[in-house]
Design a protein that fits this description.
By secondary structure, the chain is of the alpha/beta class. The protein contains eight helices and six strands. The protein has a single domain, classed as P-loop containing nucleotide triphosphate hydrolases (Rossmann fold). The chain has a six-stranded mixed β-sheet, with helices on both faces. Strand 2 and strand 3 form a beta hairpin. Helix 5 packs parallel to helix 7. The chain binds guanosine-5'-triphosphate and magnesium ion. Guanosine-5'-triphosphate binds next to helix 2. Magnesium ion (MG) binds next to helix 2.
């Protein structure tokens, strides 16, 4: 008889452990932005700790999954073409975090093509009503900092000034304003995905933002 009671007690403790929330927390991240800004590179590095070997334009959404500490992180990497806005909106419906990538070097040098493309993205974001139901955290990520002429002079002691300069650009302010208008939290970071060392720095910033301890 004692063994029936012991077996029942063991079963109850397993059920109790599951009910106590030992399941992984899910974090849904959607990565969007113009073509060639580093979306797939970032999604790959966040999930595998490796940089992709070659550039292949993303033509349909790719799903990445990784367990980090106690969280299951699901990353949706979307294609960057202008005709992809419908897919972006659909993908962002259930996002906890939206990573919007732009080239920081092009923004910091007021590149007209980049501004025109980002302006078009902004017009779309404004028209989305998905944020009435879901309030993801918008993370504006400036990539390609290694292509900035000052890159070799950027150190931890002046890095903040470059983030400030990036945030002060009108086009970035306009994205931040959309987040404010739609009631979303937002963060801004810049960095590079050229080398593993650079990618690691950006990864640390992002894990901090999404609240995952390294
Ligand atoms: N120098 C430099 N190259 C980068 C950086 N980020 C990405 N790249 C390179 O840029 C190219 C495009 O990167 P992807 O990550 O595939 O770009 P994507 O945004 O996914 O592009 P689409 O799928 O076409 O929308 C690749 O050759 C990357 O190695 C960066 O910060 N600096
Ligand atoms: Mg891609």
């Amino acid at each position: 008889m004692w063994w029936i009671i012991a077996a029942a007690a063991a079963t109850i403790s397993i059920i109790a452990a599951a009910a106590a929330g030992n399941e992984e927390k899910r974090v849904n991240i959607v990565v969007i932005g113009p073509r060639g800004v580093g979306k797939t590179t970032l999604a790959t590095f966040l999930t595998t700790h490796k940089l992709p070997i070659s550039y292949e334009q993303t033509v349909q959404q790719e799903r990445y999954e990784v367990s980090l500490n106690e969280s299951k992180v699901i990353i949706l990497d979307l294609p960057g073409g202008k005709g992809e806005y419908g897919g972006w909106e659909e993908g962002c419906k259930n996002a906890d975090f939206i990573f919007y990538l732009v080239r920081s070097d092009k923004i910091l040098s007021d590149d007209e093509n980049t501004i025109s493309r980002v302006t078009s993205d902004i017009t779309r974001f404004k028209s989305w009503n998905i944020f009435e139901q879901n309030k993801p955290h918008l993370v504006i990520i400036g990539t390609f900092l290694d292509m900035h002429p000052d890159y070799s002079k950027i150190t931890p002691s002046n890095f903040g000034e470059y983030i400030d300069r990036f945030k002060e650009k009108d086009i970035i302010k306009r994205i931040m304003n959309i987040a404010i208008t739609k009631g979303l939290k937002f963060s801004v970071v810049i960095g590079s995905l050229k080398s593993e060392t650079d990618a690691q720095k950006l990864r640390s910033f992002l894990l901090n933002i999404i609240g995952i301890k390294k």
